[in-house]
Design a protein that fits this description.
This protein is an alpha/beta fold and 294 residues long. It has helices at residues 2-8, 17-26, 31-42, 46-51, 59-73, 78-82, 106-117, 137-145, 158-171, 227-235, 255-265; strands at 84-87, 90-93, 127-131, 150-155, 176-179, 191-196, 240-249, 267-274, 280-287. The longest helix is centred in the N-terminal third of the chain and has 15 residues, at 59-73. It binds glutamine (GLN).
Length: 294
């Protein structure tokens, strides 16, 4: 099927927008995805494409379109084809070394911003950390909306930190990039707000097949997906300021386990937030005084 499209869209032939959409369908590529590619190639909105469906693709457009269609037909996410993804109003560069930011994670950002604007608002330069920053999505979304925050972004992978650096530079936002595993490179520092979207999918989970283009290290965690969440929670008391908050994204069926662990370690005000699809997606709490003298 991919071959058919490739021959239909051969650079020597002319190809109209309507034909391009037909060839995408023949390859099993969603019409909306194909339209999105054409929007990018023409620099025009969808309404323009519909009104000009006899417009011809240039040779360069045809080559790029054909390449995108075959990659998309193989299952590669659009964000990697385009090298970018919108998150919380920011246009972020993404590539195969980083997880593609999800709308679900905006729930975590919104919660963090609520705390910065509310309970933590008396702190002049709140210390914020994003653990496992990947593209820098969470850290940058917070920094853009709360400029006085001193934001640290941690990742184990140097290749991810390069992407986060490029996003910070591109957006003109300052953050401190730190290489290390969760809290390990942050000894001696205490934060008022810590956020993390760690890997939380159990090894062998059936959803992983659809996520095969994304870094598995950002997706999969042992102990049924809870291993990294547990590690972050257990070490948090040594790295949070008095009254500091820890907010964690997790799987839709992990909220209770995460809340329980937070309580055991000494968090108070432990609660869960739901994502845009109504699933329990983030849990967090405020470090209670009982654990501060550890
Ligand atoms: N929410 C993502 C998904 O299920 C997983 C992100 C993660 O593991 N942190 O596609």
């Amino acid at each position: 099927m991919i071959d058919t499209a490739a021959s239909e869209a051969r650079p020597t032939e002319s190809l109209s927008i309507a034909q391009a959409l037909t060839s995408a369908a023949a390859c099993g590529v969603d019409r909306l995805d194909a339209q999105w590619m054409l929007e990018k190639l023409f620099g025009q909105p969808r309404t323009w494409l519909i009104a000009h469906d006899d417009a011809l693709l240039s040779e360069d457009q045809r080559v790029r379109y054909t390449h995108w269609i075959s990659r998309r037909a193989a299952g590669e996410p659009l964000a990697y084809l385009f090298g970018e993804k919108e998150f919380h109003g920011l246009q972020l560069r993404v590539g195969p070394h980083v997880l593609i930011p999800r709308p679900d994670t905006e729930t975590l950002v919104e919660w963090g911003l609520e705390l910065l604007m509310g309970e933590l608002s008396a702190i002049v330069a709140p210390q914020v950390v994003d653990l496992g920053t990947g593209s820098g999505a969470i850290a940058l979304a917070i920094k853009r909306r709360w400029a006085t925050a001193a934001v640290a972004a941690v990742d184990l992978a140097a290749s991810a930190l390069e992407v986060a650096r490029s996003n910070a530079d591109g957006l003109g936002l300052t953050m401190d990039l730190v290489q290390g595993s969760w809290w390990s490179a942050l000894s001696g520092r205490r934060f008022h707000l810590a956020l993390s979207n760690p890997p939380y999918i159990a090894p062998g989970d059936e959803h992983l097949a659809a996520l095969r283009y994304e870094p598995q290290s950002a997706l999969v965690s042992g102990e049924n997906g809870l291993s990294d969440l547990h590690e972050i929670i257990d070490d948090a008391p040594d790295h949070l300021a008095a009254g500091g908050w820890l907010l964690l994204e997790h799987g839709h069926d992990q909220a209770e386990a995460v809340r329980q662990r937070l309580c055991v370690v000494g968090f108070e005000n432990v609660q869960t937030r739901i994502d845009l699809t109504g699933r329990e997606r983030c849990s967090g709490g405020r470090l209670g005084t009982r654990s501060l003298d550890r």
